[in-house]
Design a protein that fits this description.
Strand content: 25-35%
CATH class: Alpha Beta
Number of strands: 7
Number of domains: 1
Number of helices: 5
CATH architecture: 2-Layer Sandwich
Shape: globular
Order of helices and strands: EEEEHHHEHEHE
Structural class: alpha+beta
Largest sheet: 5 strands, mixed
Radius of gyration: 15 Å
Strand order of the largest sheet: 4-1-7-5-6
CATH topology: 60s Ribosomal Protein L30, Chain: A
Length: 157
Amino acid sequence: MRIGHGYDAHRFGAGDFVTLGGVRIPHPQGLEAHSDGDVLIHAVCDAMLGAAALGDIGRHFPDNDAQYAGIDSRILLRRVRDTLAEHGWRLVNLDSTIVAQAPRIGPHIGAMRENLAPDTGVAIDCINIKATTTERMGFTGRGEGIAAHAVVLLAGL
């Protein structure tokens, strides 16, 4: 068994929604990113890749490669799941935290879990997503962006 941790953050920019856990959430700003900017899924990918000692999301899906411009991060997550399987690993469980002053995350957590479970190959009760603010401290508290942490447990196939 192996444990991995992932972290990602993106700043706000132009747009009228953010995508988190594959869920499109209305918001007066979007997230600046090469892909869809889904910080939750990016953190999950990094945690999974890290636990398997396979680098990080940037190594597998570089932001200077045009094929990943605007890509749905759920596609990347499924590719990471498949890469882990090729190396003899599977996800056991995921615990994650989204750090954002806004938008409100709570109403969307169920839909995020419903997306992440099949994309990672586990039952929904193996996926946990939490949300917190930083009480208006730091870049997330000032409304400059959103961050996410993810911790995973992998087991050999």
